[in-house]
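2024-03-11 09:14:02 DEBUG pipeline.ingest accepted 1 chain
2024-03-11 09:14:02 DEBUG pipeline.ingest length=437
2024-03-11 09:14:03 DEBUG pipeline.predict start
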Amino acid sequence: MAAFHEIPKIPFEGPDSKNPLSFRHYDENEVVEGKTMKEQFRFSVAYWHTMRGTGADPFGPGTMLRPWEGPEDTVENAANRVRVAFEFSEKLGAPFFCFHDRDVAPEAATLAETNKNLDAVVKVIREEMDRTGIRLLWGTANLFSHPRYMHGAATSCNADAFAHAAAQVKKALEVTQELGGDGYVFWGGREGYQTWWNTDMKRELDHLAAFMHMAVDYAKEIGFTGQFYFEPKPKEPTKHQYDFDAAACINFLRAYGLTDHVKLNLETNHATLAGHNVEHELDYAGYQGFLGSVDANTGDLLLGWDTDQFPTDVYLAAKIMLAFLKYGGLAPGGVNFDAKLRRESFEPVDLFHAHIGGMDCFAKGLKVAAQIRADGELARMLDERYASWNAGVGAEIETGKHDFKTLEKYMLEKGDAEPNRSGRQELFENIVNRYVF
């Protein structure tokens, strides 16, 4: 029996709709800046939160009502969960999904048995993908939950943990290839350290780079042409994460010769934990050619951890979409809802409310961003702010026609710099408000 038999396929009903199980702004066929919304977003459901989230927190066990779950996570139970997951995505209208290897199939006593479990469940995933047309945005391996990875995986002080992680990623790449995944993410949940006293930082980073190169080499060997992503993740769970933010990740990729193979998968909540806004991370990665894919969520700024809440802030969505449009979109990446229900939202229907809200929020943000770009007022104001660089000495500096000596001569002759102009921050913010409300 279907798990969501009482819920129809979610329709688009327009801004005036008061039906909580409908889209008010997300019309997958509406064309914005030359692409349909479906093409612009490439929305993906995160298997780990949507299908495996229990509502547990440090102060209590799970609360979620999931009638499709059995008393034990057997292969049979995992296969049934796959069918529920695809029923959910099909009714939601999300064209993609993402997963960790351990999300979809239970871990066994040995690697060989675990791989056998995964193969059995992947067969069901393939059947459901063929039935629904839903595709795999990207795959990844869980290299952080099992105790063997307590010191990290690719950066572990235990060579056997590194070797096990390599074998696990080898299998995850094969599965991603088998399922036609558009990408693969390096998600370093414990790639960092707690105390400098027991850490050889250079050795660990060398190992992390070697691990990524092994993955790139194996992808070539099996013919996997999907995009690799590196996901910045600060603070949680280790104090000094090597993948702290976009700048740290890009510097690492450059230092170890990985720039031709790996882009970034950026997450809103990770950006704020690193002390940035997500638009900073998107722009920083984008102008250097590393903007790849996005984990869509938001965090509670009054809490100091990764709360992974569904996005509901249209201002935030508009800024994200301005960055997407500025750099030509995300494909082959997409917008993956790496977000989970609140512990108190425990009924299955809440999964629909959460995803509908997130998709509508992004759709409204896209419309706002596209209108801002079409009107061009903010772009003109920005250009005016940098007017001194568009001609004269500014243009000459940008084209390499000056050095310290010629600039000294220029200022000695001029006497002093031209007065500064106001930054007009409040005016910029007021103009953005015109588009949002």
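2024-03-11 09:14:41 DEBUG pipeline.report The first strand starts at residue 31 and ends at 32.
2024-03-11 09:14:41 DEBUG pipeline.predict end
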